[in-house]
Task: structure prediction
Amino acid sequence: MLVLSRKVGEEIAIDGIVTIRVLSVERGIVRLGIEAPRGIGIYRRELYRRIEELNRQATTAQALPLVTALRSVRLYTVAPSTELPSVPLVEESSMAIDDRPREH
Result:
């Protein structure tokens, strides 16, 4: 882990495409401004962990509890009348080696 000290107005560059700027420090609260291309997701850690958990649930859960969870964190808007398709689950152990998803 890289640990840096920055003053208000100073910046940190990440890979030349993400810039983090210290906007203010007041009463122990640091406000940061982050500039990044649209394709890069920026989330608070606790929200990102929730998204990860919802993604894990999506691979094993029925659609209704997942939609309810998504509505509760207000990441996506899904109309109450939306019909979601049923997706059959495939046990990984029953897939042939050539059928398994490949990492890129």
